[in-house]
Design a protein that fits this description.
CATH superfamily: q2cbj1_9rhob like domain
Number of helices: 3
Distance between the termini: 28 Å
Number of domains: 1
Radius of gyration: 16 Å
CATH class: Mainly Beta
Low-confidence stretches: none
Oligomer: single chain
CATH architecture: Sandwich
Mean pLDDT: 95
Strand content: 25-35%
Number of strands: 11
Strand order of the largest sheet: 1-9-6-11-4-3-2
Bound molecules: N-oxalylglycine, manganese (II) ion
Shape: globular
């Protein structure tokens, strides 16, 4: 499913990658899972573990954490592909990736996630961030683009959240933000860690 060679080449050359990966059939099944489980999503919080708070002026999405070892059947080969990617990254780039964590995210119209880093604490073990875009449609003008910044604070790339596409980037290298979504924006977002998660 994932174009592993292309992802590896992109990560080596630019530190991030976007690939179309999910078929319309899988997207439709996942869409059904979102619809059926809407009530279980909770307002996402910000801040380090232990002192988390709701701050809609920073991030307005709702999340539902999933067990990466036991993804819902609707997600098909997603889990197996992520394990394959992890193994290959370890083999080729010695990243020492162990576990990953992931959540579904739902951005209601009008929500966004301000510029942040996924590795904000020195103790964080996040190495690679990834996102599958899971809304049924997206067109220019719908908003919700992912902006990747360089270390100098300049926008490096505006990534369109195309349905069924997969994006990954080195967590430490790219501060990023989700622009205001004009339409409901859905994703599976996760992080590979270089530590075992308990
Ligand atoms: C995050 C995040 C990016 C996206 O959840 O930390 O930055 O495109 N998501 O959804
Ligand atoms: Mn992030």
């Amino acid at each position: 499913m994932l174009e592993l060679d292309a992802i590896l080449t992109d990560l080596r050359d630019q530190g991030w990658s976007q690939q179309p990966v999910l078929s319309a059939g899988v997207l439709e099944k996942i869409g059904g899972y979102f619809d059926a489980n809407r009530a279980r999503f909770k307002e996402a919080k910000v801040g380090p573990a232990g002192s988390q708070r709701r701050e809609a002026s920073i991030r307005g999405d709702l999340t539902l954490w999933l067990d990466p070892r036991d993804l819902p059947a609707e997600f098909g080969a997603v889990g197996a592909s992520l394990s394959e990617l992890r193994d290959l990254l370890n083999e080729k780039f010695y990243l020492g990736l162990k576990d990953y964590e992931c959540h579904l995210a739902l951005y209601p119209p009008g929500s966004f996630y301000r510029k942040h880093s996924d590795r904000f604490e020195k103790t964080s073990s996040r190495v690679l961030s990834f996102v599958f875009y899971l809304h049924r449609s997206w067109e220019k003008g719908d908003g919700g683009e992912l902006l990747l910044y360089n270390q100098a604070g300049e926008v490096l790339r505006e990534v369109e959240p195309r349905p069924g596409s997969f994006v990954c980037f080195l967590s430490e290298e790219f501060p990023h933000e989700v622009r205001l979504a004009g339409k409901e924006r859905r994703s599976l977002t996760g992080w590979f860690h270089d530590k075992t998660l308990s």
